[in-house]
Every structure is written in C-alpha cells, then in structure tokens.
Amino acid sequence: LSYATKKNEKEIHRTVLQIPKWKVTNYGAIARKLGIGSSARLVGHAMASVPEDLEIPAHRVINSAGQLSGAHAFGGYERMRWLLEREGVTFKGEKVDMKKHLWLP
DNA sequence: AGCGTGACGTGTA
DNA sequence: GTACACGCCACGC
Fold first, then answer.
1. A41 and A69 in contact (C-beta within 8 Å)?
2. Which of A91, A64, A88, A87 is nearest to A77 (CA)?
3. Which residue's CA shows the smallest distance to C1' of B9?
4. How far apart are CA A5 and CA A22, in angstroms?
C-alpha cells in the first residue's frame, strides 16, 4: 500500500501533526477540515502512504466508531493499541473511548 | 473505458 | 445496540 492522494497529501499530513498526545481524531473530521467532506476514504489512503518512521502520528487517526481500522499498517491491532495506550489513550472494549479522547481540527 | 476494492461517514430502519 | 444503502474517489486489473 504505497500510494498517495497527491492533491491533499501535504494538507492531510499537516492536520495530523496537529493532533495532541492522548487525543485521536477520525478520517471524516480531517476530510471536512480540508473541504473534501464526504471523501474520508482519501484520508485513509493518504495515511497508508505515510512511512511509520516519519514524525506523523498516523496512529492517532482512527474511524468515527473508535475502531483501529488502520491497525494492519502498524503491525496489527495489539501494536497500534499499544502505541495509543502509551500516550494515555484509554479504551472501552475494543474501541477507543471517544468521549474522552476525540479531538477535532 | 468499466469494475471491484478499500485506514470512511451518515442516514435510516 | 445492529444492518444496510448510498455517496465518495484513487488504484489496479
């Protein structure tokens, strides 16, 4: 999975960089911020093109239901969950507790 | 060109 | 709480 949405790639990265620690946001929120509202999928595509070693905290971007839909890019669910919990994000079952941790751009 | 697929979201039932 | 339809668009075939 190494393709990027050339048009908004930079804007997306910039927005993701603004997500504070112990907070998460969702694909749709970023899409709306960039004015591509209903194209949340493109944000997910852009995340897939982010090298993990870069400073971009892509693990803080999850879906609106609080599920770690991008876990496969971080070595599986357990690893991505660990990355988040390490920053103070708490879970409610299999999902992130969005009530406490949702951040909107 | 069409068609299926996917780190998605909202509305409706 | 679940399930399904629909809108969206880049990519690979």
1. no
2. A91
3. A28
4. 27
Q: With contact defined as beta carbons under 8 Å apart, do A69 and A45 qualify?
A: no
User: Closest nucleotide (CA of A40 to C1')?
Assistant: B8
- Radius of gyration of the CA atoms of chain A, in A: 13
Cβ of A70: how many Cβ atoms within 10 Å? 18
State pLDDT tens for residues A47-84: 988 877 778 999 999 999 999 999 999 999 999 999 99
Give the position of tokens 């876990």: A71
* Distance, Å, A4 CA → B11 C1': 30
Query: Which residue's entry shows tokens 């620690």?
Result: A21
**Structure token digits, residue A28:** 């749709």
How far, in Å, is the CA of A54 from the C1' of nucleotide B12?
A: 41
Structure tokens that stand for A53 in this block: 């070693």
